[in-house]
């Protein structure tokens, strides 16, 4: 058997939900969060990064995470 082909997915979540591992991978529905060591993407003009990337440990999907403000 060959390895699964890694895919890409987008995820929107709040910082609080992400830090508490409440966000889920859109592909395999595994909980993802700070414990998965995301790579924060710094942008010009913002003090706090609003984007991050990480690879899901279960399905190997590369996730792009956008942090949104809570409603």
Short description, anyone?
With 71 residues, the chain is mainly beta.
Question: How would you describe this structure in keywords?
Answer:
single chain; 71 residues; mainly beta; four-stranded mixed sheet; two-stranded antiparallel sheet; 1 helix; 34% strand; globular
Description:
The chain is mainly β and 71 residues long. It has one domain. It has one helix at residues 15-19, and strands at 8-13, 23-24, 31-32, 39-41, 51-55, 62-67. Strands 1-6-5-4 form a 4-stranded mixed β-sheet. Strands 2-3 form a two-stranded antiparallel ribbon. It is globular and about 35 Å long. The model has no long low-confidence stretch (mean pLDDT 88).
Measured between the Cα atoms of the first and last residue, the distance is 45 Å
Beta-strand residue fraction: 25-35%
- Helical amount: under 10%
- Taking all Cα atoms into account, the compactness measure Rg is 13 Å
Number of helices: 1
Structural class: mainly beta
Largest sheet: 4 strands, mixed
Write out the strand line-up for the largest beta sheet, numbering strands in chain order.
1-6-5-4
Approximate shape: globular
Overall number of strands: 6
Q: Mean of the pLDDT scores?
A: 88
Q: pLDDT below 50 for ≥5 consecutive residues: which ranges? A: none
What is the total number of structural domains? Answer: 1
Order of helices and strands, N to C? EHEEEEE
């Amino acid at each position: 058997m060959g390895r699964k082909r890694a895919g890409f997915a987008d995820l929107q979540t709040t910082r609080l939900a992400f830090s508490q591992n409440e966000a889920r991978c859109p592909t395999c529905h595994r909980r993802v969060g700070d414990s998965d060591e995301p790579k924060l993407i710094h942008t010009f003009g913002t003090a706090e990064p609003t984007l991050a990337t990480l690879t899901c440990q279960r399905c190997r999907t590369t996730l792009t995470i956008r942090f949104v403000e809570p409603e």
